[in-house]
Protein: Iron ABC transporter permease
Organism: Ancylobacter defluvii
Amino acid sequence: MLALSAYAAQGEGGRRQAATPLGLLDIPASPRRVVAIDSRISLESALALELPVVGYSHSGARPWVPVPAEVPMLAAPADLEQILMLEPDLILCPDTAPHSDWWPLARLTAIAPVLPSNHHLTWQANLARLAGWLALAPLAERRLAAHAALIAAIRGRHGEAIAATRVAALYFDPLKRRAMVCSAGTAYGQLMPAQVLAELGGREVGADRLGRYGDVALEAFGDVFGDVDAVLLLDFGDGGPQALAGEALWQRLPAVRDGRVQVVAGNCTFGSFYTAGYLADAWQALYARAAA
């Protein structure tokens, strides 16, 4: 067994102090070996800031995220000995449950300094906060400006449809036969479909019409989705859209009956810069469909 005591690698070069929610941390001024515990917010933020990632955990990187081919996916939940063997000089980890197996932030601090993300913050806030700790604010600002320009272009093309269309972003659980709606205000925090929709100025299903985690039972489809004009349907690759297509209550919905459903491949419920761009394109496709 490897002893998880002291930092495994201090790296070369200088150090800097970062004032974080975890306290004042001593971190490398130019990290050389970064581990991202979350393949979504942590990994995407690291890549957007051009950090040298040597491994990531949780789940496979999404196809739209430009992970270098040589960067491995690590064990999930995180294996601390495996991470120690990589000799990271910086670790990125959500602060969701710091003593859990999936997000073991408290134990990771024995290996290397840990910078946290928070799923109750927007992706922009998480990226800007990380960039501030690492003195990479100009790079983050360029990323944010590029995304803002994309959003402005979509609003310019589809402003009328955005204003006139009530939408829902959802995925279907084929085992429990229920929809999970990615609206703002659920217990899941800042879900990416809702964040990007808010940037566009779109109109979504209110969280007050949903279960705590955005869930909608099959028998409530008519009540919740009856006034929805168009649907962004997330396809996790688990057969959800195919199972949903066989449900009579789904087929009766006006948006479905009129062909105003845009399927987007992949789990894009959480993420950062790259998922935001991916979803912006998906929302644009839905609004174009709704206006046709």
